[in-house]
């Protein structure tokens, strides 16, 4: 089950590649692309990260692609593994982050957070802090709604890997 899902993910959004990082270091993991879009390609949802759930392994790279303008990706302070580093990418720019620490990472787009432009990255066995993400302080109704939808799908993934 786990292998099947991972294989599916790699067909959808990930390419096996090495990423050239600032400073010349090379990441050896998989690169997972997340598109920043004004409209979901397969639904009427506006302002989305696509895919909004990524399953990765420690050392993998997440590549945020600025397909449409005015988006970025910022981790919530209370939605990352303890001791892990978050990130904040520049608006309108493609950006790559390497996820090192195992766990769940919640992030949002600054201009569209209140509209529910949010996403989840699960690194390795994310069960360590996954449940704590549900306790995070969310203010906007659309933001809460999108997270409920993401959690409903992620519950199966995290539950299945535990
Ligand atoms: Cu946005």
Describe this structure as you would to a colleague.
It is a single chain. The chain is of the alpha+beta class and 162 residues long. The protein has a single domain, classed as Cupredoxins -  blue copper proteins (Immunoglobulin-like, Sandwich). The protein is 22% helix and 30% strand. The protein contains three helices and eleven strands. The strands form three sheets. Strands 1, 4, 5, 7 and 9 form a five-stranded mixed sheet that branches. A four-stranded mixed sheet has the order 6-11-10-8, with helices on one face. The longest helix is centred in the C-terminal third of the chain and has 21 residues, at 141-161. It starts with a helix and ends with a helix. The structure holds copper (II) ion. Residues 47, 71, 109, 111-112, 117 line the site of copper (II) ion.
Short description:
This protein has 162 residues and is of the alpha+beta class. The protein has 3 helices and 11 strands, in the order αβββββββββββαα. The chain starts with a helix and ends with a helix.
CATH superfamily: Cupredoxins -  blue copper proteins
Ranges with pLDDT <50 over ≥5 residues? Answer: 1-20
Helical run tally: 3
Topology, number of strands: 11
SSE topology sketch:
Elements: H1 2-12, E1 14-15, E2 19-20, E3 26-27, E4 31-39, E5 46-50, E6 53-56, E7 60-65, E8 74-75, E9 95-99, E10 103-108, E11 118-123, H2 130-133, H3 141-161
Parallel strand pairs: 4-7, 6-11
Antiparallel strand pairs: 1-4, 2-3, 4-5, 7-9, 8-10, 10-11
